[in-house]
Amino acid sequence: MVGAFETSGAVADPTQAMRLLWLVPVLPLAGAAINLFIGRRLGKAAGWLATVLVGTAFVIAAIAVRDLIAVPAEARVYVLHLFDWIQVGAFRVNVDLRLDALSATMILVVTGIGALIHLYAIGYMDGDPRFGRFFAYLNLFVFFMLMLVLGNNLLVLYLGWEGVGLCSYLLIGFWFEKTENANAAKKAFVTTRVGDTAMLVGLALIVAKFGTLDYDVIFGSAGSTLTKGVATAIALLLFAGAVGKSAQVPLHVWLPDAMAGPTPVSALIHAATMVTAGVYLVVRMHPIFELSGIALVVVAVTGLVTSIYAGTCALGQDDIKRVLAYSTISQLGFMFLAAGLRAYAAAMFFLVAHAFYKALLFLGAGSVMHGTHETTDLKLMGGLWRRMPITATTFVIGAFALAGVPPLAGFFAKDVVLEIAETGEHWVAYVLGTFAALLSALYIGRVVFLAFFGAPRSERAEQAHEAPPVMWVPLAVLAFGAAFGGIVSTDADGRLAQLLESVVGGVPEAIGGLTTPLFFVIALGMTALGLGTAWFVYGSGRVDWLALRVRLAPLQRLFANGWYIDEYYATVLVAPGKAAAAFTAYRFDVGFVDGIVNGIGGVVRRLADVGRRLQTGFVRSYAAAFFVGVVAVLVYVGFRL
Amino acid sequence: MRTPIAYFLVLSGVLFAIGSVGVLIRKNALLIFMSVELQLNAVNLALIAFSRMHADLTGQVLAFFSMVVAAAEVVVGLAIIVSVYRRRQTVNVDDARELRW
After folding, report:
1. Closest chain B residue to A618, measured at CA
2. Do B32 and A619 touch (CB under 8 A)?
3. What is the per-residue pLDDT for A7?
4. Which of A84, A511, A613, B47 could cross-link B63 (Cys pair, CB 3.0–4.6 Å)?
């Protein structure tokens, strides 16, 4: 198998690690296969096997990326041909892996954070009757995610895209014995399908216009092939897929419910990797979006609306995981805002930083649940830091990173986006983005003070216990990343931006904006205001927040129910859909379709009642008929001669 | 001097007619079966006669084929007759008529 690989691409002299790039997706796939077939017999080793395989993939990926960075920037593309997949006439699709700055960033996040979450899951899923199967799904997810980002054409991306959707479905519904979990899985799958269908139409449009799905051909000839209208159509159709996958308004409704899955799944799939696939898609396809222009505005507006909407929803949630889910939606909105402002490198930087601190926050929430007998209600927590100091410390680091406290990663990531909005004089984006940042400081401050400080508000919180090392070691590593990850890119033209320049071009030019000190004063002021307010209301003990909550009940209910968008969909889409389904099933199908089928059956039956009297059952009469027939044929043939 | 072809064909025709009448009028499955064999062999005779007339061995080859097939058919047919007999102590074909409408 290895010998059959051909290599081509701009990297003149690929190193051994680059040639072994195929191992990066194949190792998790092998882990999935092993755990699927003999995972039950492996016992606890199933988790270690899965973790080690993803960890090995990370090491290979890291060496390959190091070698990639060593070559000059203009030659930083390496394509590894695996095999021909589809060939119909002139249309052909190969399974090729493409290593460039963009996919390099993604595979490091997927395998690196993925390995840590696998390790954590060994502790978290301990004692689950389907332990091996959990890791099989998790590994399969990593495989599909890697194919999504490494594919050299849109069909391989789409394969990964649907594959991660499948794994998301399997893992959200992992504890399918509870009906609500199974329903959440179904909801996630169906909602993302809405976007995926549009995306598939977009791919068909690309094939119609270019005759291929290869990135190089599309980007090479997009300017001369596409009119502005067609580019807009393709960009918006692809973006619809991204909206579904990345849970943006209006297709965001599945993500809060997806928290029904085990917490490591929420961390890996619904915070760090799968939901960021939409951002990756927009960044990867940015030449088409730029050609359209208007599509970028749609991306930015969607991101902005989503980030503020989800920020308000996060304020009203009592379930710690649902706060984080809405927070993820809000933060993904920030990434789309960045991409819409052509700050692709900033979007990717935000993606990486967010992967660290949001995975950390989810795993911290999981650790809290693990230590308090699956308590998720913030009202029943309080004072946990005494009981679980490591979880509390790491969670606070993650929360501060999310809130934008310098010098943590989230501070730089958020400020790079806002800085680009402000220096580009996109004032609406800047003001609303700053407001969204304020909201994020507020809701995460609320979680921190409600969960970890004050007095315990339930027996479970009093008797909480710290997580085992297999769980807190990943927390510590992620906290380290969330704390110092920002160093790779401290401003709009930081190291990551320079690395990505070979794929996404330079940063948008500054045309004005605020002075730098004023910008930082506002940014830090918002963080301080958000965290300070959260402390005053929930942490200081000077405000009776439960009474405040009763006084603001209508607003609280609006936020807690996500502005009733689920109910709105239930009335406008689901109820008519069910009515239409009931009509087709019980009226049209039973009355009309079955009527035709039964009618034809009845006629045939009545004819047969007549015809079957010919069958007398006497063998000799059959023989006689046979004989007469033969004679008749012979006579006929004889006369014709 | 060679025997004229007509002799063979007449003999073949007579045998075939006997077989046909046997199939049509007999009630005993075993006798019907024998009559069918008679028809088959009548045809084989005609095949060989024509083969000799045309000095072409294809006819003889075909006759061998038909013998082999007939042998196989005998095996299956007799087995059916035996099992029918075991079940109802008779092989009268007029009695076996459950499968009509």
Report:
1. B94
2. yes
3. 39
4. B47
Minimum distance, in Å, between the CA of residue A601 and any CA atom of chain B: 18
CA distances B27 to A615, A616, B42, Å, are 18, 15, 22
Cα A379 to Cα A319, A391, A467, A538, distances in angstroms: 9, 18, 21, 11
What is the chain A residue with the closest CA to B100?
A: A617
Chain B positions in Cβ-Cβ contact with residue A627 (cut-off 8 Å): 20, 23-24
Residues of A in contact with B20 (CB under 8 A): 627
**B100/A615 Cβ within 8 A:** yes
Distance CA A538, CA A542 (A): 8
List C-alpha distances in Å: B34 to A54, A137, B15, B28.
77, 69, 12, 10
Residues of chain A in contact with residue B31, where contact means CB-CB under 8 angstroms, are none
Task: Give the C-alpha separation, A47 to A68, whole Å.
Answer: 31
Size of interface A-B (CB pairs under 8 A): 31
What pLDDT band is residue A339 in, cutting at 50, 70 and 90? very high
Residue found by looking up tokens 């993650």 in the block: A398
The reply to whether B30 touches chain A by the CB within 8 Å rule is no
Give the residue, A551 or A166, on which the prediction is more confident. Answer: A166
Q: How many helices (H) and strands (E) does chain A have?
A: 30, 3
| Whole-number CA gyration radius for chain A | 29
Q: How do beta strands A91-100 and A77-88 pair?
A: antiparallel
Query: How far apart are the CA of A603 and the nearest CA of chain B, in angstroms?
Result: 18
Q: Does the complex come out with an ipTM higher than 0.85?
A: no
Domain boundaries, chain A: 1-152, 353-555, 561-610
CA angle (A639, A641, B4) in 5-degree steps = 105
Percent of chain A residues past pLDDT 70, beyond the cut: 98
Which residues, in sequence order, are bridge partners of residue A81? A6, A96
Q: Enumerate residues 66 to 95 of chain B having a beta carbon within 8 A of any beta carbon in chain A.
A: 93-94
**Inter-chain CB proximity A623 and B99 less than 8 Å:** no
pLDDT band at A495 (very low <50, low <70, confident <90, very high): confident
How many Å apart are CA A348 and CA A499, to the nearest integer? 11
Residues 6+ positions from A217 with CB-CB distance below 8 Å: A210
Average pLDDT value for chain A: 90
pLDDT at position A2 is 36
Q: What is the pLDDT of residue B1?
A: 60
The closest alpha carbon to A63, from A110, A24, A96, A26, belongs to A24
**Chain A residue with minimum CA distance to B17:** A627
Distance CA A415, CA A520 (A): 8
Q: Which of A387, A228, A225, A381 is nearest to A293 (CA)?
A: A228
- What's the pLDDT band for A4 if we cut at 50, 70, 90? very low
pLDDT tens digits along A181-207:
999 999 999 999 999 999 999 999 999
Q: Any bridge partners for residue A98, and if so which?
A: A79
Percent of chain A with pLDDT over 90: 64
Across the interface, whether the CB atoms of B24 and A613 are under 8 A apart is answered no
